[in-house]
Give the backbone structure.
Amino acid sequence: MICKTQNMCPIVMKMLFMEIETQSVWAVASVGPGFIAPYIRQHGHGASFLRVLPDMDMRDIICHIEKHAPDILGFSLTTRQWKRGAYVAGKIAKIIDIPIVAGGLHPTFLPSSVSESGAFDYICMGEGEAATLELLNCLESGEKIYEGRIPNIMLKRGAIPELRPPFGRIDDLPFMARDLLDEKHGVIHMCTQRGCPFPCTYCAAGAIDGLYKNTGYVRRRSVHNVLEELHEIRRNGELNYVIFLDDTFTINRNWVKEFCRAYAREFSTGFSINARAETINQDMIGWLADAGCSHIVYGVESGSMHIRRDVLNRPADNQCFIDVFKLTRQANILATANYMMGLPGETSEDIEETLSLNDEIAPDDFGYFVFYPYPGTKLFDICLQNGYLPDNYPEFPSDDSQSVLDMPDLSKADIKYYYNKFTQVHKSA
Ligand code: SF4
C-alpha cells in the first residue's frame, strides 16, 4: 500500500485527471479538466493528465499514477465513461491511499448513484472550477471536510450539496490547459459558451440550466476573448484547424456575425461547428463561409414531424432542414446530419420517415445513434415514469448501437434492425 497522505508538508496539491476511454480513444480529452486545470494552477496547485486507454490493465494504470505522484485523482465522467471509471477508481482505492473525486455530466445528474458505487470520496456537481479549488485548499490545509462544507461537493454516500452560483463571466477564467486536451497535429478544440437556452427534451446541455434554476448558467465568451485564445495558441504552437465544440454555435446571430468578421480578418484557418438548423439562414451561412467554416454538423434527430414536435420539442418542419442543407452545400460547406432512433413514442414508420428525410437532404455524411435517456433530461424522466428503463439502469453505460429501453411500440429487436439498416445506407452512400 502506497500512502500518499504521509507526504511531508506538500506545498501544493497535485491533481491527476484520469481520462477514461471505453471502446475507442476519442480525438480530444474531456473539456472539464481542461478548464479546471488552469484555474487550480492559477491558485498554486498542480494538474496533470492520464489517458486510461481501453486496453490498459490495472498494473499499467497504477504504474502511470505513481510516476505522476499526485495528491488527488479527478475523474470527469459522462454516462459512457462512468461504469469503467467507477471500476478503475475502486481498484485504485484498494492499492493507493489517495482521495478520488468524480465530476462531469453523469455525476452531476446522478450523484447518488455514482456516490453509492463507493469508488469515489467526493462527487463534484455542476461547474467544477471553484468547487475543485476549495476542495484542494481544504485537503491541503488538513481541514476536516464535513457534510455541506463545500458547495457542489458531495461526500461519499452523503447528501446532495447546495450548488454555488455559476462562476460568472467565462472571459474571467484562464484559457483551457492544452496539455490536458491531448490535441494532435494543430487541430484545436475550442469552447465559446456554456449551456444552451433551447428546451430540447433529450439534451443535457439544455438541462443543466434547469439544474441551476435558470440563474445564469448559459453564458458566452466575448469574441475578443475567443480570438485572444486562438492567437495565444498560434504564438505557442500549431494552429491548423479549429473544431468548435459548442453544442450550438449559431445560438446568437449578432455574436456569430461579429465573430465571423473578426475571425476572417485575423485568421485563415478552417473550422467546423455544430449548429441547430432552426437558427441558420442564408446570411449566416454566408458569414460562416467567408470566415473559413468548412464543415457544419446539424442535429436533425428525426424525420418525423410528430417525434420532433411532440417528443423532442423541436417543432421545425422538414422543409427547414431541406433548405438549410441546400444552403450549406451551395456555400461549399460540408454538411453532416445526426439522427437518433429508438425514441419514446417512436414507431417503425417514424424511423422510415427519418430515412426518407435523409434521402431528401442528402448530407455529405450522417451519424446515427440509438437513443439513450441521459439523466437530467426530460426524456429521462419520461422513460423512468413509463417504466421503459430497467430498475438497474445506472449499470448500463450509453451504447450508440443498442437500446436500453423496453417500450411498447418499438422493440429492442426493431431498433437493432433499423440501426443495421442505417449502417447499410451509410456504407452505400
Ligand atoms: S440539442 Fe442542441 S439546441 Fe437542443 S438543448 Fe441541446 S445543445 Fe441546445
